[in-house]
Design a protein that fits this description.
It contains 3 helices and 6 strands, in the order βββαββαβα. By secondary structure, it is an alpha+beta fold. Strands 1, 2, 3, 4, 5 and 6 form a 6-stranded antiparallel β-sheet that branches. It is elongated, with a radius of gyration of 23 Å.
């Protein structure tokens, strides 16, 4: 309804040079460990600030890695995807589908979802507190003397 699923303006290629600490990010997902419901893709779960990806700045937590050095990560187990990253060499080309800021079915650990849940919990806590105070005041003023 909002355009073709196959149009991918948010797919980018990112070239990284492996540093002393590797590529500097962690991945989740795979056919055996789905991170997103009905999606066996490989996702970036954490980026180390001083690692190659963190210093480059283009890769973000929640991004989906489609390929590494031309090898598609679709339908791979988590272990085989990790092995592709470990043996990729010093210069690594990633094809990445950038997370959409308004994407409702994104990874459960993506940053926007964490940020939006905290204020909601605060509002619920305030409402519960207000209800408790109102209930106390109601009971205090409407209690019948013995």
């Amino acid at each position: 309804m909002n355009g073709s699923v196959h149009s991918s303006p948010n797919v980018v290629d990112i070239q990284l040079k492996r540093g002393p600490a590797g590529l500097g990010f962690n991945i989740v997902g795979g056919v055996d460990q789905q991170y997103v419901v009905n999606d066996s893709g490989i996702y970036v779960s954490k980026i180390k600030e001083d690692g190659a990806a963190g210093l480059d700045g283009r890769l973000e937590e929640g991004d989906k890695i489609l390929e590494i050095n031309g090898v598609k990560l679709e339908n791979q187990t988590h272990r085989s995807a990790v092995e592709f990253f470990r043996t990729a060499g010093e210069d690594v080309l990633l094809r990445v589908q950038k997370k959409s800021p308004h994407h409702m079915n994104g990874p459960t650990g993506s940053q926007p979802e964490h940020n939006s849940s905290a204020p909601a919990l605060g509002v619920l806590a305030m409402l519960a507190g207000a209800a408790a105070i109102l209930g106390f005041l109601y009971m205090r003023h409407h209690r019948k003397p013995f």
